[in-house]
Amino acid sequence: MGEIILPRRMFLWCMAVIYLTAFVSLYVQIPGLYGNEGLLPARWQLRYSGKTLGEQLLSSPTLLWLGPRLGLDTHTAMELLCLIGAALSLAATLLEAFRDSVVFFCLWALYLSMYQVGQVFLYFQWDNLLLETGFLCILVAPLTIIRGSRGVREHDRVTFWLLRWLLFRLMFASGVVKLTSRCPTWWGLTALTYHYETQCIPTQLAWFAHQLPVWWQKLSVVGTFVIEIAAPFLFFSPLRRLRLGAFYLQVLLQVLIILSGNYNFFNLLTITLCVSLLDDEHVNFWLRKADKTSSSDSRLWSWLSYLLELAVWSLMIFGTIICFDLQLDTTKKGISSRTAFTYHQFNQFLKTVTIPSIWIGVLSLTWEMVTAMFRCACVSGFLKRFCGTVQWTVFAAASAAMFTISLVPFSYIEYDSHARLWPAVRKSYDLVDRYQLVNSYGLFRRMTGVGGRPEVVIEGSNDGVTWTEIEFMYKPGNMSAPPPVVTPHQPRLDWQMWFAALGTHTQAPWFTSLMYRLLQGKRDGTHPHSAAVSFFSFFKNNQMYSFVFCCAVIELIQTDVSKYPFHEQPPAYLRAHRYKYWFTETMADGSYPQRWWRRVYDEEFYPTVHLGNTVLESMLNQFGLKDKSPPRRMSNTVVAQAVRWVRSQVRGVPTHMLIWTLVACSTTFCLLQGLRNRNKGTLLTHKAAVTVNDHTGKEADSSSDSFEKTDEQQAAEEEEEEGGGGGGGGEEDSEDEVEGAGGEEKDTVSDDAEGEEEDEIKVRKEKDESCRKRKF
């Protein structure tokens, strides 16, 4: 594999952007989800039982334990940690100096702190993936507190390889679990005929994708299996073009998912991991820059590489045709497909490839380690060689340890292979499991909503007779409302509403808390809307009234509280029904319908309740959702007041718009900075060229002056000789010899001057090239 300086810089920048979106998205939702009067207060997860700080961190590794020592309650401490994470990630996005291993360690620790108390609202696979990738950033990023460490390090390719292994585990497991789950839609290749309308938050393009013919949907499922199961093995190919082909296949799949569904930062994070398949040569190709590395491959090896690549792609195409029985269907003007293998055959295939895939990883990592070791041995200077060897030893050991413990979650896909792992490997995994260093993955295991997309609709009433639907900002509800685009923001309540609709309300205890908080809005006699408009007017004697927090819960439903149907007076009664939703179809004449959705009533999801209702009270007590502790006084420290001020500034702003603004401004700033640096480099190169030309002109003028002086001296000598009238032929001959010798000396001096000028020009060019490299 070629140099990975540019891909590593791209990866670290993308990770800074993803951290920024994750922290901002979570920060806006903290009051409603984890506030003292939120759905699942975070302070319930931290029990102060007299343990020391070290014991608390070991039992639950979160920085929120430091909150009381700073005079902050858990809610305010969570907001403070999110703000610090957002500020650090924004700084890392804008300034390369902040893309440091220490900064990425802080970002990882901050997000892990949120994860530990996040409960069901943070238990998503992309949160685990962000924590695992974030920890690898600590190994990949340079350590700028050590002088000169931002340059190329001999062990960089070893740590960068861990990203490729993570990408392989993610994609391979995601493809395998679709078939090991025995889901009939995946085995029947009909999953995408349901996916677009049953996914959590579809986009408008999902409606159009849903209208595609069935044969194309089935062929798309075949392509998904090829990209997720077969293509990941190309990540470790020694042939560069095979890795690049695998890169474009993965990016194609992720871009299509982004266009058709709102999966927050997950697909962007997957694309970021795909950067580990690139090298400097290909990035320079994107930038239209000439690659300075000369290829020394022989023509024979080039032809052999082409033949091997052709054989691999041909084998993948042939295997796809055989395994899925692809045939041209002239009657339907398409391609017919079906699964041509059984579950038993696939299980045998999985047993055959799981252990060999681990050994492929071992060999690939070993190769990177050996090549990095030889690079260290070739460094000039004993001290540099010694320091490089020490760094290689540390990072190679860390990479080997990360790879070893990752085998435990990876082997979950096949039981026999998992049972063959050494017990010591499992024990090592258990020791670090709480830190989310490695995780198991498997997305879209089963396709839900085959009989129609289940959707919970909450209704409120003031008299128990007239009911009004409470419409959420993102999830489907209003059949005429177009599907939104909110990527990379994740509205976590909307996501959990989607999961809750798949079962009963008893399987989602937080739903009872949601109903309770919405009913609580009638406390204190002031409606939540006024609390949203003038936030600070309701702080008196260091005490906050409860309706402010209820307003925070409402803002999870509608950022603009005025659009909430009960913003003037909270509902006296609440209930919830389950409906089945489907995308509408195009009209017979090919025109588009007026509505995006159609629905039918299914059943009651939650009974009618009101404050003091026995059913509601019993469920609150059953799930432990009623806080019996006395109300806590608010923190009034300078830090707490600053955190509340920041909250007042972002209140009422749609989260996805806030994230888009931050990312767009950061990206624009980085692009302008790059163009400015490029223009500076061009200007310096031009100045250097002008300086060289001036220097050459001055030397030419001085040499011409010396020549003119010599001619004048010669003319004066001739006049003196003619005027003297004496002298024989011997004197004339001697003068000619002197002149001839002087001419030879002049020629020699001129040649030396020209050689010195050429050497100086070469030195300047080399300096210019080194300057360009550093700036890029």
Automatic annotation (TrEMBL):
Acidic residues bias: start-end ranges: 714-723, 730-739, 750-760
Membrane topology field: Multi-pass membrane protein
Keyword entries, A-Z: Endoplasmic reticulum, Glycoprotein, Membrane, Transmembrane, Transmembrane helix
Positions of transmembrane segments: 12-30, 76-95, 102-123, 129-146, 158-177, 219-239, 251-278, 303-328, 349-370, 390-413
Single biological process term from Gene Ontology: protein maturation
CC terms in the record's Gene Ontology section: endoplasmic reticulum membrane
Region (Disordered): 694-776
Record's compositionally biased regions (Basic and acidic residues): 695-712, 761-776
Subcellular location, record wording: Endoplasmic reticulum membrane
InterPro entries for the chain: LMF, LMF1/2_C, LMF1/2_N
Any one Pfam family match given in the protein's UniProt record, by short name: LMF1
Family the entry assigns: Belongs to the lipase maturation factor family.
Protein purpose: Involved in the maturation of specific proteins in the endoplasmic reticulum.
Name of the molecule in the record: Lipase maturation factor
Native species: Lates calcarifer (Barramundi)
Gene behind this protein: LMF2
